[in-house]
Here is the input.
Amino acid sequence: MRTYRFLQLDVFTDRAFGGNALAVFPEAEGLSTEEMLQISREMNLSETVFVLKPEGASEARSEGTTGSETSKKEPSTAKDHTESEPQRVLRRLRIFTPTREIPFAGHPVVGTWNALAREGVVPLPETGTGWTRIFHEIGIGVLPVDIEFKDKQPVQVVMTQGKPALGTVIEDSHEQADIARAIGLAREDLDESLPIQVISTGLNFLAVPIRALSDLRNCRVNSSLLTEIYTNLEATGCCPFTRETIEVGASRAHLRMFAPGDNIPEDPATGSAAGALGAYLVHYGASGVEPVDGGFSFVLEQGDFINRPSRINLEVKGTAGAVEQVRVGGPSVLVIRGELFV
Here is the structure.
């Protein structure tokens, strides 16, 4: 019998029992793909992450400081790197829903690197307070992750996502009505100032703009119809949202994410969907935020209607019509340490 340690964290929250729960196996060497899927079903969370040694080349090039280099600045403002400098990949992450492996996701990356920072995998800043940039390998390639420490403890993880992409737009009124019906709303509840569109920063979602927060609250999903609609569009889930928010200040949209085809009735916090939605809002000039230093910073809300409030920090680089990069971040809380027997 083999024993594997795991940690469970609540991600995109600063308190236990909020955000999105995540299981992380920090030393997953020796597990087969089938065993990983079985374990993910056993954990019964929206995602479970298995951490492995890097599979590809041990070095990759990307923007930012080296994996062992630290900065006391916010990572988005750190300019002191050399393009030709090699970047060491610390770990490879494999991410599973209860039904399949996916190449990329948001809260699994943010939560996993919070967990690995607690495990001592991440080099600390010189003083124990500040930022460290590392690189990791996931299904869409090698990307940087920035971890903020305070007194040697991780307080925030910020991930750089894949290239923002806007896909199919649903223009047919009958198809729009079917999408509204699939989430329990009427076509009149849609916000017609923005398109229903497939969006992505590495994982496809169907973005559905809703006029009012009260309508978003009233969503009642027809699982079979919604799954048929978004899978036919090669999306992972459906992401209805409104620009009305619960909190004032930095919040600019409230979203929900339904993926019944992956046995996820509703996700409390979806970093990949939030990143893609942030790019979409900036692309259409709908973020409600003025750009600063060539970028936009704001917060997206999620999870409140299922009693798992989550707040996702967004940094979007670029301009309306020309989004270049999306970074998503937030805190995580460790809630469980355990062992699993295989």
User: Anything to note?
Assistant: The two ends are 6 Å apart (CA to CA). The CA atoms of residues 68 and 123 lie 6 Å apart.
